[in-house]
Design goal:
Aldehyde Oxidoreductase, domain 4; three-stranded mixed sheet; globular
Length: about 190
């Protein structure tokens, strides 16, 4: 709040630069999970399996142990009925500051993974991602107990991928950075001309 107020007062851009020590004392990052995930889908769009193997950076002081990684695994199927679910996490200790449990603790990360898998599967089957997966119960609704956590990360990744679809770009990693989008453009497979 202070930086925008100072910039407004001075009527010019202002930059905050903190020392490494200040950063260690004042921050506690989270959401650093790296997933290798896959989805099993029948031709009719029924999701039959989901698997993820991932690492979670716990920082230098893993005070929460496996809590966030286990929470991610527990929420892997999301609101859907998926018969085969497998999750394997490795918590790593690094030079970063400790990582706390923010609101959602593991759920936004896994929601991002599942949403990206579902959207990619829908596109490969030629289905509309909004109607996928086609897993409706007797009440005509998808799943039961839908989570209240909706992460904007997959929505942004999907929007970028859609905008660059004519260039054959596939976004495989989040969070997105300008450098990662440029790299995806360089690596793109251009669709063959009709």
């Amino acid at each position: 709040m202070l930086i925008p107020a100072v910039a407004r007062r001075l009527r010019r851009p202002v930059r905050w630069i903190e020392s490494r020590r200040e950063h260690f004392l004042a921050t506690a990052p989270d959401r650093d999970q790296h997933h290798r995930a896959r989805l099993g889908v029948a031709q009719d769009g029924t999701v039959t399996a989901v698997q993820t193997i991932f690492t979670r950076d716990g920082g230098a002081y893993p005070v929460l142990g496996d809590v966030i990684a286990l929470n991610s695994i527990n929420h892997l199927p999301g609101p859907y009925r998926i018969a085969n679910v497998k999750g394997l996490a490795t918590n790593v200790v690094t030079h970063k500051t400790f990582t706390p449990a923010y609101r959602g603790a593991g759920r936004p990360e896994i929601a991002c993974v599942l949403d990206r898998l579902l959207d990619r599967a829908a596109r490969r089957l030629g289905m509309d991602p909004l109607d996928f997966p086609s897993m409706r119960n007797e009440l005509g609704i998808k799943g039961v107990g839908e989570s209240g956590i909706v992460s904007p990360v997959p929505a942004i990744a999907n929007a970028v991928e859609d905008a660059l679809a004519d260039r054959g770009v596939e976004i495989a990693r989040v969070p997105l950075t300008a450098a990662s989008v440029w790299q995806a453009l360089r690596n793109a497979r251009r669709p063959s001309a009709p």
